[in-house]
Amino acid sequence: MNQTVAIVTGGGSGIGLAITEKFVQHNITTVIVGRDPEKLHQAKQKLGSLCVPIVADLSDLEAIPSLVKQVITQFGHIDILVNNAGINMKKDFIEVTNEDFLKVIQTNLVAVFALTREVVKAMLPNKKGSIINISSMAAQYGIPKVIAYSASKTAIEGMTRAMATELSPQGIRINCIAPGFIATDMTSKAFNADAERKNKAMGRTPMGVMGTPGDIGDAALFLATESSRYITGVVLPVDGGNSIGF
């Protein structure tokens, strides 16, 4: 039995780390890609030999093909890709510069496209693969002060559907997870500084609580494996009902 190999971008912390943890628990060799060597090292210490860190900045598009080549050289194939790495920027609409906008689009959208393209090239000969994109509530409804982020995540959902239609006939499934409000260091900081935003978020979440990174990990494991073999092109909100709440 061939060892299953996954790549998780932004795998060193938060949601990416939780996804990696679920994969490793299910005996999936998981390459975690990130910019912070220390975070990646800590993840490896925690998760053991099935967790393989590679330090890379995905916004450097020219370096992506050699990154994928490195994984193929080491493991022979790639079965799963989780596009989790992303950046956000909170600014009033009229304050966002062209450079600001492009920086978010480059990391959250163009890098996802470029990495996925290279991974798909490696998956096609094997006629199988599962790709999971990570969207956001910012693609489900309008959130102020995150214009570039909203644009990038809405585009990710459109790209998921287009890729699924084109690639599923060749055995590659593409799906997307739209996390709701998940308790990570990043959200805790944002919410603790802004009680009104926190009350608003929880007020429209029917389950009334924040999710955990592990909730996203469980959804990713489902979409990555044979359990979801007849599912492609979906955007799965994992949000306690936030996207349908009032």
List keywords for this structure.
246 residues, alpha/beta, Rossmann fold, seven-stranded parallel sheet, 8 helices, 7 strands, 45% helix
SSE layout and pairing:
Elements: E1 5-9, H1 14-25, E2 29-34, H2 37-47, E3 51-55, H3 64-75, E4 80-83, H4 98-123, E5 129-134, H5 147-167, E6 172-179, H6 185-192, H7 195-203, H8 213-224, E7 235-238
Parallel strand pairs: 1-2, 1-4, 2-3, 4-5, 5-6, 6-7
Protein name: 3-oxoacyl-ACP reductase
Family: Belongs to the short-chain dehydrogenases/reductases (SDR) family.
GO molecular function: oxidoreductase activity, acting on the CH-OH group of donors, NAD or NADP as acceptor
| CATH 2nd-level architecture | 3-Layer(aba) Sandwich
Contiguous helical run count: 8
Q: Give the proportion of residues in helices.
A: 40-55%
Distance between the termini: 48 Å
Structural class: alpha/beta
Across the major sheet, the strand order is 3-2-1-4-5-6-7
CATH topology (fold) name: Rossmann fold
Count of the separate structural domains: 1
- Strand % is 15-25%
Question: For the report, how would you describe the main beta sheet?
Answer: 7 strands, parallel
Alpha carbon gyration radius: 17 Å
Mean pLDDT: 96
Protein name: 3-oxoacyl-ACP reductase
InterPro entries: NAD(P)-bd_dom_sf, Sc_DH/Rdtase_CS, SDR_fam
Family: Belongs to the short-chain dehydrogenases/reductases (SDR) family.
Organism: Niastella yeongjuensis
